[in-house]
TrEMBL record:
Residues 80-114 form a coiled coil. One of its GO terms (cellular component) is prefoldin complex. Belongs to the prefoldin subunit beta family. Binds specifically to cytosolic chaperonin (c-CPN) and transfers target proteins to it. Binds to nascent polypeptide chain and promotes folding in an environment in which there are many competing pathways for nonnative proteins. Residues 128-142 have a biased composition (Polar residues). This is Prefoldin subunit 2. It comes from Brachionus calyciflorus. InterPro entries: PFD2, PFD_beta-like, Prefoldin. One of its GO terms (biological process) is protein folding.
Length: 150
């Protein structure tokens, strides 16, 4: 009977490792989305700065634009509408990524609650009172996940 009990214990341990791995994968996905969002926000600010600068310049003035690694000579009148269109597309992408971050955060919190995952040093009351807000818990924890025994 001890072999059956040890086999059951090993399968439960393996299941717990899979749960933790899935949780960490979800967090990594959220971090990747946030990183891409931050990168696009920097690009958006850069576009806005160039647009504001070019608005003050004559439309016929010659300017250069990098397109696919090639420097192309154009006029401000030709470049400005394209930059504004790119900025608008980047803005839409950033908004989409922000909604994905929120959705992924909800998915992480649901998964965390479903499997009763908590951070080391976090009490059950802290988890419920924070409503799964990871940002407040990150400063308190060392990032180690612990499953509460059932």
């Amino acid at each position: 009977m001890s072999t059956a009990a040890s086999g059951s214990k090993k399968s439960k341990e393996k299941e717990q490792q899979e749960i933790v791995a899935t949780f960490q994968k979800l967090r990594e996905e959220q971090k990747a989305i946030a990183g891409k969002s931050a990168e696009l926000q920097v690009e958006q600010k850069s576009h806005e700065l160039v647009i504001e600068t070019l608005k003050e310049v004559e439309k016929e003035r010659k300017c250069f634009r990098m397109i696919g690694g090639v420097l192309v000579e154009r006029t401000v009148g030709e470049v400005l509408p394209a930059l504004e269109q790119n900025r608008d597309q980047i803005t839409k992408l950033v908004e989409n990524l922000q909604s994905q971050i929120i959705a992924k955060g909800k998915e992480i919190n649901d998964f965390r609650e479903k499997h009763n995952i908590r951070f080391q040093g976090e009490t059950e009351g802290e988890q419920k009172s924070s409503n799964g807000a990871e940002s407040s818990n990150k400063s308190k924890s060392s990032g180690v996940l612990v499953e509460k025994s059932a």
